[in-house]
Amino acid sequence: MPVTQNFNIEGVDRERDRDLVSPVHVTLLNVVISITNLCLGGVTLSAFFFIHIFVTSTSLKQHVYLCVIGYVIIMTQAVHSLNPHAGWARMVKYENRRMVHWTLQIVGTILVSIGSIIRMANVNTNFNSTHGILGIVAFLCTILTMIGGVVNANSSRLNINKTFLTLAHSCLGSLTLCSAFLSLCFAFNSMMYRVVLGDKSADFGIALSVVALVGTLVSPSLDFVKRIFHSR
């Protein structure tokens, strides 16, 4: 079948590229990913601690739990799953990494969609704050990224340039995470968070979010540049 053939060729190319990368490069990427995961854990704990330190609505708790788990935990790991130089991924074939990526993306999309819809259904002021606006942008980008992933997976059947679709899917996925993490930063910067946990905690949460976002996007950014040069 054409799809399988294209799928295997791309997998072989990725495995070959993995073997050609220097040990120093691999070590640096692993250090970045380790630091990133620590920051992701800190961001998650900060968000969860905040919603339990005072009495708040059930819809807000559901929103925070679902969106933080979906974006900060699952979707970031979906990005790491395609990195052939990251920890466990070095021991897994490309086909299996891609399956893990798809599974995480689907689960993450379901969680953030439910979390976003719950909040939008209970709050009428989504467009009154930067956090709300960026949250809606992240939600829409999430849906578009999922659609783009489906189209990208069936590029051979649709007779569409594979490289272009992959680059577009990567950009849209990165935009999704940027919107989600920026929305989270503005949540940490909110008056409510600063009053409850203090300015230092808010600034620390923002710093962790920025480092986690940058660390998550290092690998796809390098892959994006590599694909552009290889396509010439």
From TrEMBL:
GO terms for cellular component: membrane. It is found in: Membrane. It is a multi-pass membrane protein. This is ascorbate ferrireductase (transmembrane). Its EC number is 7.2.1.3. Its main location: membrane. Keywords: Electron transport, Heme, Iron, Membrane, Metal-binding, Transmembrane, Transmembrane helix, Transport. It comes from Pieris macdunnoughi. It is an enzyme of class 7 (translocase).
